[in-house]
Amino acid sequence: MQFWERLGPVRRRVRARFEVDTRALAAVRIALGTIILVDLLTRAGDIALYYTDDGVYPRAVYESASQYSGFSVHALSGELWVQQLLFVVAGLFAVALILGYRTRLVGFVSLGLLLSLQARNPAVLNAGDRLLRVVLFVALLSPLGERWSVDALRRGSARPSVVGFTTAALLAQPLAVFTSNAILKHGGDTWYAGKALEIALADEVTRRFVGDIVVRSPLLLEALNWLWVTLLAGSVAFLLLTTGRLRAVFALAYLGAFAGMVVSLSVGLFPLVLAASVLPYLTTPFWDRLARLVPAGWRDRLPTATDLGPLGRPPFERRGLDWLCQHGHGTAASLLVQYGRSLLTVSGLIVFVWVVLFSAAHATALDLPDGIDSVPNEQRWGVYAPNPSQGYSWYVVEAQLADGSTVYTVGDADRALDRPPDGSEVYDTFRHRKYMSSVHSSALNTTPHLAERYLDWACERVGSLQEYRVEQVGVVRFHYADPVGSPDEGPERWLMLEQQCEPAAEGR
């Protein structure tokens, strides 16, 4: 007992580093719900293209994919209206998550719908999609609805901060991403030489907005390269080992870096989810300072429990516990509460070990025991590691018409072009780019169902845009091998796939 008491100062320091302000948890909840909405809205424009049987990824291709698991509600039908309905349902649950209504239940339903959507078409996924499902899962173990939520209004009370294995897992997740990525980058020869960011931003296909400006300044590129490497390699020291205002300052520095990534690179949801994962590091002094900036008139307009109407009723599980207590089963009610808390604690511990162990195993190539190694490793964070790709590619459909002319299309474009577009003009979204990369991989595979379906679809699509019949389509790959070392050389061009079109592919 005396030994345990002597450890009091150490325990308090450890506790302080894993304690999270519940306003930060509310911010995480709102951010994740918003990201899900953004994801749905950006996918919605291509819902027919990627999620119906008339598009480029019908259920026949889905069932032949190597990643096929059979777990996708979205694969129950290939009709457009079914997919639209599922998107609307997912959007409603995301809104409920933002509002904090039945937070944990709604959150897990949102996670299930997200997993189903991702499983329906893995050809358009990147690391940001994996990070979203991982961070959402880990975050749902924490009390995301403790503050700024319908749940908090119904409960009538809120804890200012929480600490436990669930918050430890939540805090560990971004550190696992940063640290493992820093280790993997150390295995290359560009990041720790100050050259990698220049190579990454030389890619016209992914570069955008501010990236077009930054790429013109070699000194700024090198400075930003070293800043990013420092943030990655020093994340444990900057975020976990600090407390109070200093921790908040470092967290804001990371958020600034992610904002820069959003306006410089088209890499999907990755920087948005990274930003959400760092929000728990915003400490109480930050939130207190932010609260003082809110006008008093705004605070007076905040909703109360009476404003909720029917939603203000206690949750059914709370009503169930009250019923047990009123009927003389208070001991059973108490045991149920204790069991639920113990289950969360054990789950938090397991997830914490999973985050640390699997991310470390991937970064260090550590061999895990056979029983553990069989578990799919979702903690793989090798983005732009060990080096960014030296070159970049883009893909264009080349169609031969019956009148002898040649036209070009990209993605689901509503018109054909008389020349192949440049890399910066090709893709409307990163998912178009990722899908064409998957088509390329399928063409090299022994089971090229994805590539074959894309050619069939291209015949139909180009045929619907043209006055003359389409005789043949091909997928042309344009590749810049070394845009940094040889910027004046044009892209290499070669025909990756080709197919004769059936007579049914007539023009309009």
Question: How would you explain this protein's 3D organization?
Answer:
The N and C termini lie far apart (86 Å). With 508 residues, the chain is an alpha+beta fold. Helix 8 packs parallel to helix 16 and helix 22 (430-443) crosses helix 23. The radius of gyration is 26 Å and the shape is globular. It is 56% helix and 7% strand. Among the domains are: 20-157, no CATH class; 392-500, no CATH class. A hairpin with a 4-residue loop joins strand 3 (392-401) and strand 4 (406-409). It has helices spanning 2-6, 8-18, 22-44, 47-51, 59-64, 80-99, 103-120, 127-139, 150-155, 165-186, 196-201, 210-214, 218-233, 235-240, 244-262, 270-278, 284-293, 296-300, 316-326, 330-364, 370-373, 430-443, 449-465, and strands at 20-21, 161-162, 392-401, 406-409, 470-480, 492-500. The chain has 23 helices and six strands. The strands form two sheets. Strands 4-3-5-6 form a four-stranded antiparallel sheet, with helices on one face. A two-stranded antiparallel ribbon has the order 1-2.
